[in-house]
Specification:
globular, binds ligand C2E, alpha/beta, binds magnesium ion, about 270 residues, eight-stranded mixed beta barrel, TIM Barrel, about 45% helix
Length: about 270
């Protein structure tokens, strides 16, 4: 057999794509190592009182000559190519620094909600590294909520549970992100010690136009209530959505209607409802 047939060489297009991926990952690794990522924060409010319950940290990558990149354009690559652990650690350390800054500048005692990948949680070193960072910055784990999106990447829920138990012993809280879509089986509510669920914005988005969406959200809220779990609706963009969520007893809301994500310098006592 002609060796070329047995092991076909990559077509120029495939090899170009592979080179581009390698260069993209190298740039991302450099960005993490050189602090070239940054965080935006979006407040989450208690619906009944209008007070901020937490700030969600959302990572951004400002690439010279390319522009501002949003997480959906680089988190999947970081997860697929082993960079997510470093990225999640970088985000947590930056959250620690920003939290100290907010306390000093805004005199605000606020909690930060950090998105983390289930892949990072599967490493036993991850929880230890987070505990170390908390000690280094003299913060408490109770200052943080960890948002977990249960994705198809997850292999072993026991490792995720162990992660939650370890950090939970230090006062951290956990939240199931994007609840109601994708990989969010009810079993997770049984097995993981979560204190809140985030109702996915695709459901909030349709709450006014589709009665079925309202019914689903209403029942998610009452299920969570009975389990002693809080509900957060994200992606609130209009007053009509806000009013329905208030009427059906949602605990917390987040979205452009109240506030867009912003860098820490733009946060003020007024935005935070303090
Ligand atoms: P998520 O945790 O569901 O984050 C909420 C997303 O909704 C954010 O997008 C936010 O900007 C957007 N959003 C908030 N309010 C509204 C609204 O009213 N309307 C609309 N259309 N969108 C709204 P973003 O920042 O692009 O983040 C996307 C996802 O990337 C996040 O979804 C989260 O799963 C992931 N992610 C973000 N930051 C991190 C991080 O530091 N680490 C990890 N591992 N994942 C992250
Ligand atoms: Mg989130």
């Amino acid at each position: 057999m002609n060796p070329d047939q047995a092991f076909p060489r990559q077509s120029p297009t495939a090899s170009t794509a592979a080179n581009e991926t390698q260069s993209f990952l190298k740039n991302l690794a450099n960005a993490i190592a050189r602090d070239a990522l940054n965080l935006h924060y979006q407040p989450r409010y208690k619906l009944r009182t209008g007070k901020t319950t937490a700030l969600e940290a959302l990572v951004r990558w400002q690439r010279p000559e390319v522009g501002l990149l949003y997480p959906e354009t680089f988190i999947p690559a970081a997860e697929a190519h082993g960079l997510i652990y470093q990225l999640d650690i970088w985000v947590f350390e930056q959250c620690c620094k920003d939290l100290i800054w907010m306390r000093e500048q805004l005199k605000a005692s606020i909690r930060i909600s950090v998105n983390i990948s289930v892949l990072s949680c599967e490493s036993v070193y991850f929880s230890q590294k987070l505990i170390e960072l908390c000690k280094k910055y003299e913060l408490s784990m109770a200052d943080f909520i960890f948002e977990i999106t249960v994705s198809t990447h997850m292999h072993d829920i026991r490792k995720l549970k162990a992660f939650c138990v370890t950090l939970g012993n230090f006062g951290a809280e956990f939240c199931l992100d994007d609840f109601g879509t994708g990989q969010s089986p009810l079993r997770n509510l049984l097995e993981l010690p979560v204190s809140s669920i985030v109702i996915d914005r695709s459901l909030t988005h349709n709450i006014v136009s589709y009665e079925r969406c309202e019914i689903i959200i209403k029942h998610l809220i009452s299920l969570a209530d009975e389990l002693g779990i809080k509900t957060v609706a994200t992606g609130v963009e209009q007053n009509d959505q806000y009013k329905i969520l208030a009427a059906i007893g949602c605990d917390q809301i987040q979205g452009h209607y109240m506030s867009r994500p912003m860098n820490r310098k733009k946060l003020s006592a007024e935005i935070l409802g303090l």
